[in-house]
């Protein structure tokens, strides 16, 4: 179904077209009254004598009256007719059927989006869904990049980074953020106080990491807490892309079992990955019978689950700063290159 903008476009197109047709009749009448005949300009090269056998059409009425089925078939076979028909068909498809819209994000301009749904996933974590201007819009965020959110808190403009869990290729008309609220946090607390209809300010895309299925043969990921969001976006894009052969191994660390975010979604991806994607969970406080890692992520676990640095591989990391410091030390001891202060796409170890 066409949306409101498309109806508006068709209406304005019809009005403009009708206006131009009327205007052309008035201009034509004006010129004819002064003995200026437009056909003398349009039919340059053809005989000016209207009685000439090649010029047996004197008016639109004559033209319609004399227009036979053979004329229609001959006209339909002319390159000009075929090209025009093709152009009209492409324009029609583009306007009404494809429904493709321009990406909404702009990296130089703050845009506002209203909250339309909040789904609490644990006492301090929720998924926030924001509507885009049209149901066919996409956010316009390349896989691996993130957005910035800004809000005025106590008279100061505060800005933080977030990675949507939605993807342009699957999710139209909205985007979602999975956010953990910290009691003393600025933006995460601001989120927790939002009501349906409240708007947030967003700018992007930001970040140096952009994933594509030829980027590397093996991805190793180490995530802690909400650091899972950039990883989830990349895993989801990779696993549903059947031309992608990248293997992905994820170490995901949390405090308690109930803190594991997007667990069902990650398991689902694992089961549909034909062995390409594997997860190793680590918990500080494991429940009885826990089969994953216990305590903090160790050097041995990194060595076991991450691809060897000699392979065509990249290690991606996102999590709380103390955990990231410990992981950098493990990787250094395992002879991986040290990540830069601000990572670049070409780096073997990339810190979000
Ligand atoms: C690329 C990128 C993507 C990110 N994506 C997400 C995402 O999808 N979802 C998400 O929830 N977060 C994400 N983050 C983290 C996010 O940017 C904020 O750092 C986080 O929401 C805290 O911001 P704040 O303003 O609420 O807290 P701040 O004002 O920065 O911190 C104030 C206080 O809050 C508490 N606090 C803040 N962060 C932590 C922490 N990690 N552990 C313990 N206490 C803390 C501390 O008491 C701190 O003193 C991402 C970060 C990056 C760099």
From TrEMBL:
<feature type="binding site">
    <location>
        <position position="187"/>
    </location>
    <ligand>
        <name>FAD</name>
    </ligand>
</feature>
<feature type="binding site">
    <location>
        <position position="229"/>
    </location>
    <ligand>
        <name>FAD</name>
    </ligand>
</feature>
<feature type="binding site">
    <location>
        <position position="188"/>
    </location>
    <ligand>
        <name>FAD</name>
    </ligand>
</feature>
<dbReference type="InterPro" id="IPR001709">
    <property type="entry name" value="Flavoprot_Pyr_Nucl_cyt_Rdtase"/>
</dbReference>
<feature type="transmembrane region" description="Helical">
    <location>
        <begin position="72"/>
        <end position="96"/>
    </location>
</feature>
<comment type="similarity">
    <text>Belongs to the flavoprotein pyridine nucleotide cytochrome reductase family.</text>
</comment>
<dbReference type="Pfam" id="PF00175">
    <property type="entry name" value="NAD_binding_1"/>
</dbReference>
<keyword id="KW-0285">Flavoprotein</keyword>
<dbReference type="GO" id="GO:0090524">
    <property type="term" value="F:cytochrome-b5 reductase activity, acting on NADH"/>
</dbReference>
<dbReference type="InterPro" id="IPR001834">
    <property type="entry name" value="CBR-like"/>
</dbReference>
<keyword id="KW-0812">Transmembrane</keyword>
<feature type="domain" description="FAD-binding FR-type">
    <location>
        <begin position="108"/>
        <end position="212"/>
    </location>
</feature>
<feature type="binding site">
    <location>
        <position position="178"/>
    </location>
    <ligand>
        <name>FAD</name>
    </ligand>
</feature>
<dbReference type="InterPro" id="IPR039261">
    <property type="entry name" value="FNR_nucleotide-bd"/>
</dbReference>
<keyword id="KW-0496">Mitochondrion</keyword>
<dbReference type="InterPro" id="IPR001433">
    <property type="entry name" value="OxRdtase_FAD/NAD-bd"/>
</dbReference>
<keyword id="KW-0274">FAD</keyword>
<protein>
    <recommendedName>
        <fullName>NADH-cytochrome b5 reductase</fullName>
        <ecNumber>1.6.2.2</ecNumber>
    </recommendedName>
</protein>
<feature type="binding site">
    <location>
        <position position="160"/>
    </location>
    <ligand>
        <name>FAD</name>
    </ligand>
</feature>
<keyword id="KW-1133">Transmembrane helix</keyword>
<dbReference type="Pfam" id="PF00970">
    <property type="entry name" value="FAD_binding_6"/>
</dbReference>
<keyword id="KW-0472">Membrane</keyword>
<dbReference type="InterPro" id="IPR008333">
    <property type="entry name" value="Cbr1-like_FAD-bd_dom"/>
</dbReference>
<keyword id="KW-0520">NAD</keyword>
<dbReference type="InterPro" id="IPR017938">
    <property type="entry name" value="Riboflavin_synthase-like_b-brl"/>
</dbReference>
<dbReference type="GO" id="GO:0005741">
    <property type="term" value="C:mitochondrial outer membrane"/>
</dbReference>
<dbReference type="InterPro" id="IPR017927">
    <property type="entry name" value="FAD-bd_FR_type"/>
</dbReference>
<feature type="binding site">
    <location>
        <position position="180"/>
    </location>
    <ligand>
        <name>FAD</name>
    </ligand>
</feature>
<keyword id="KW-0560">Oxidoreductase</keyword>
<keyword id="KW-1000">Mitochondrion outer membrane</keyword>
<comment type="pathway">
    <text>Protein modification; peptidyl-diphthamide biosynthesis.</text>
</comment>
<feature type="binding site">
    <location>
        <position position="162"/>
    </location>
    <ligand>
        <name>FAD</name>
    </ligand>
</feature>
